[in-house]
Every structure is written in C-alpha cells, then in structure tokens.
Design brief:
Elements lengths: L1 H13 L12 E2 L12 H12 L17 H14 L3 E5 L2 H11 L6 E5 L4 H7 L5 E5 L4 H14 L5 E6 L11 H10 L2 E6 L24 E6 L9 E5 L1 H10 L1 H4 L6 H15 L2 H20 L9 E7 L1 H13 L2 E2 L1 E3 L9 E6 L6 H17 L3
Parallel strand pairs: 1-10, 3-4, 3-5, 5-6, 6-7
Antiparallel strand pairs: 2-8, 7-8, 9-12, 11-12
Length: 376
C-alpha cells in the first residue's frame, strides 16, 4: 500500500507538481488579506474584548446540540443587515460552506449549471448532489441561456440552479452578473453566487459585486470571512426558508462542531471595520492600477482586480520564476494544474491595501527580468 502513495508522489515530482508546506517570508503578494485586516490592531482588540467578555474559544459541539452561542446568532443578524440578505448562516470555512450549499439545495430532478472555472469547492459539492449538473464555458451567457431553455422545455416545474463566482479566484476576472441574474429571473432559476474574493473589496462598503441582488428570493450568496475580512469562516446569505432547510438537512452543518464563538466575535468586528474601510479600498485600487501598468508594459493582459495572474504555461517555468522572486524577497506562489487547467500554470499575484508603492514598482521590475530570463 505504501508504494502506491510513494509512486503517486514521485509522479507529481517528475511533473514539477509536488507540493510542500512553506513558511511566511518576504513581501506578501500571495495572501487574500486584501485590506490588511488579519493583522490589524482593531481585530486583535476585538478578540481581546471578546475574551474579556468570557466568550469561549471553542463551541463544544454542533450548533444543534450545545454548540450554538449568542455570538453566532449576533453575527448572523448583523451580517444579514450589512449585506442586505434576509438571513445568514455561519460556517467554519468557505470551502465547506460552498460544498455544503451545492450538495444540499439542488434535489433529484433539478439541474445545476456551473461555470467551468468554478472553485474546487463547487466541484466537491457535486459529489454529494442528487441533481443533474452541467458545466458551461467560462462566463458564456449564451450557453447558460441555451441550457436553461432546453431544461425548461422538458421540465417546466423542476428547479434550476446556476453556480458562479462574482470575482474568479485564479483569473481575477468578473462574472457577467447582470446578464446571468436576468436569465435566472426569466427562467425561474436560483442563482448561487460565490462572493469570496469580492467581499470587502467590491461594492458599496465592501458588500460585494452582488450587493444589488442580495435579498432576492432566488439569490444565495457566499461571503468568506478569511480573505478581506481577515478572520475565518463563511456566511451564507439566503432567504429564511432556505436557512431553515439548511439547518435541518445540511449534513456538513448538522454534524460539524460549530465554529469558534471567538471567531464569530472577530468577524462581527471585521464587518464594522469593512463598513468604514473606504480608505483601504481606495489604496487597494491604486495598487491595482500601479501593478496593471507594469503588467501592460510586459505585454500581458491585466485583470483590473486585486488578483493578477501571470500565465506562463509550463509548470516548471512557473515554479522557477516564483522561486527566483522569492529569493528577492517577494512572496508569490506558482499555481499549477489541477488547480488551474492544463497548460496554464501561472503566478497568482495578489495585492493588499497595505503594500507600499515602492514594493509594487520593485516587483514589476523584478518580474520583467525573470520572465525574460526564463523565456522559451
């Protein structure tokens, strides 16, 4: 049995895809802490205050047993008000929340359509769904409509779900939200929107790209708390009916130990910070424009968001450039298949409002040198 795993690891190594855990060093161009909340004094003070109020570190059980805490409920109420949804449900992690959503809401006889670049958590959820599911080409509104039309021609009353990200995690591009929302309304479909990388950064007060859609009866959004909000966990915003259904039928919610009440308290503070963080969002937009200028000079496409991919094609080239940049003090990681499609290994550069202008300029210069040095 052991040789099977050794052979699998060796095969990954031969292809330049063997992964290992590494430490944190160098300037942060790789995390999702887009607003610099994670190490902020404000969040540290919020945690200290919660401890002083005797908020426990652990929940001690699932929320349907003894694990439900006032901090969880206050967070969900405050999140619903902040994002504009009818109700919210707090999960311990974004991956778990999205996979749980996908595997729980669509039922036998339903259809789930999902974007080809949807997060791995969406695909994980597919393993547990009883619904039929089909992939559509990335951001292809015409294909979505074609699939909906064909489904409605034979299933007038079954439910259809459309799963997308508002801001895609590996390409940094945006979904055509208005067009897809229009199709969802026209064909009586439920729109599942993963706002993980838009939360805190996009929309009024950082409420996301789908802020105008929140509260609609056919819209469910996911807001992660471990990226721009600087803590951990995730919030599903949904109609109250669906929240009650998830509480009763969603196994990853029912059987998991509840998230830490202390973390719930931290997320409450992060939401308050987010509402007044326009200065940080302005600084982040400046860094996005600045890096975009360097990327354009290199003849590469810009994403226009805080996630800037530099697609290099080969796994080994991506790893080599990342290693060279790390040696110069830039923490940038190579992203390789199967996380991204074959032939699209890349550097995934992320930006934070806390980065200095000089640091972005230095990265642009260094990146240009190493791309030239490793050119085929």
């Amino acid at each position: 049995m052991q040789s099977r795993y050794e052979q699998a690891l060796e095969a990954l190594n031969r292809r330049g895809r063997l992964r290992a855990l590494g430490g944190r060093s160098g300037l942060d161009f790789t995390s999702n802490d887009y607003l610099g909340f994670a190490e902020s004094p404000e969040l540290k003070e919020a945690v200290a205050d919660a401890l002083a109020r005797d908020v426990p570190v652990g929940a001690g059980g699932s929320r349907l047993l003894r694990g439900n805490h006032a901090e969880h409920e206050m967070l969900e109420e405050e999140a619903a008000r902040f994002f504009g949804g009818e109700s919210a449900l707090f999960f311990g992690a974004g991956f778990a929340a999205n996979a749980a959503l996908i595997s729980t809401l669509p039922q036998r006889g339903d259809l789930l359509l999902y974007d080809a670049l949807a997060h791995a958590s969406t695909r994980e959820g597919l393993h547990g769904t009883r619904a039929a599911y089909r992939e559509f080409a990335h951001n292809d509104v015409d294909q979505v409509e074609s699939e909906l039309r064909a489904f409605r021609a034979v299933q007038a009353h079954a439910r259809c779900f459309i799963a997308i990200e508002s801001l895609y995690s590996m390409d940094g591009d945006l979904a055509p939200l208005a067009d897809i929302a229009s199709l969802a309304a026209r064909y009586d479909a439920v729109l599942l929107i993963d706002e993980a990388h838009a939360t805190g950064v996009q929309g009024p007060q950082g409420r996301g790209l789908a802020a105008d859609l929140e509260g609609a009866p056919n819209v469910v959004t996911l807001h992660t708390c471990g990226k721009a909000l600087g803590a951990s966990g995730a919030l599903l915003l949904m109609p109250e009916l669906l929240r009650r259904y998830m509480i009763n039928r969603c196994k990853p919610f029912i059987y998991a130990t509840a998230p830490s009440p202390l973390v719930a308290a931290a997320v409450r503070a992060a939401l308050r910070m987010c509402a007044r963080a326009d200065d940080r969002r302005t600084a982040l937009r400046a860094r996005i424009a600045q890096l975009g200028g360097h990327i354009t000079l290199l003849g590469l496409p810009t994403s226009g968001t805080q996630i800037q991919p530099v697609i290099l094609g080969g796994d080994r080239r991506a790893s080599a450039v990342a290693k060279a940049l790390a040696a110069e003090g830039f923490d940038i990681r190579a992203i390789r298949p199967p996380t991204v499609p074959e032939g699209t290994a890349r550097l995934r550069i992320t930006l934070s409002s806390q980065l200095a202008q000089e640091s972005v300029d230095a990265l642009g210069a260094s990146l240009g040198r190493h791309l030239q040095d490793t050119a085929a």
